[in-house]
Amino acid sequence: MKFELLRGSWVVCKRELLSLWVTPLAWVLLTAFLLVQGGVFYSIVLHSAAMGTKADLVGPLQAYFGQQSVLLSMTLLLLCPALTMRTFAEERRTGTIEILLTAPLRSASLVLGKYCAVLSTYLVIWMPTLLYAVLLRDTGVVDANVLGISYLGIALVGSSYLGLGTLMSALAKSQLVALLASVFLQFGLFVLGIGEYVLDDGILRDLSAYLSLTTLFEETSRGLLDSRHLVLHLSLGAWALYVTTRVVESWRSS
Predict the structure, then answer these.
(1) 57 pLDDT exceeds 80?
(2) Most exposed residue of 8, 40, 52, 97, measured as fewest CB within 10 angstroms of its CB?
(3) What is the pLDDT of residues 173-199, one digit of tens each?
(4) How many CB atoms lie within 10 A of CB 218?
């Protein structure tokens, strides 16, 4: 049964990857993402060079992943919904979802395959930013372990946000509605995290710190990863995929 689930997921994943990269969507997102992130990184490098020895304690990469993490968060708030908005909403609009529902595929395979496709695309979009570390490799400010954990944090947040975006796409009947719903949901989580800086000490402030992307990226930029953040994002992504599977099964039974 597990083999059947994985085989069906692989078939759907290949189909979804083809539709993502044959159409302009993935290429447009990749180009826009690299232009924005390249500009951000270039400005950080210029600032570090201007600061001279004062910037030695915080290298450009650490600033990029940590101190400037608000820019990363805002990027994810747009990138993840844009990647997931079409997963189910477009299938429903065009009517091709009926073909998938009548195919010998389990609902879990359908959801998992689409999710793996957008997650793979998300990781591919981030891969060119590894060149930032290559450019700085001779400066002595690149720590491979810190760099790896920083990217792990990026992947972790992406896994949960893409799961939520997939769920919103399953609940919506148009790409635009799915996009807006995902943006509002993820922005809401981001705002809750900001409470860490405005609330007094107490359970609400602790909860905000638990949800805060800024805290997560600041920690990973120093080579640290709190297990609570790991559990949060993995659980959030798994919950979203579970609910999406239930939604797809309801389409089959109706």
Answers:
(1) no
(2) 52
(3) 899 999 999 999 999 888 888 877 777
(4) 17
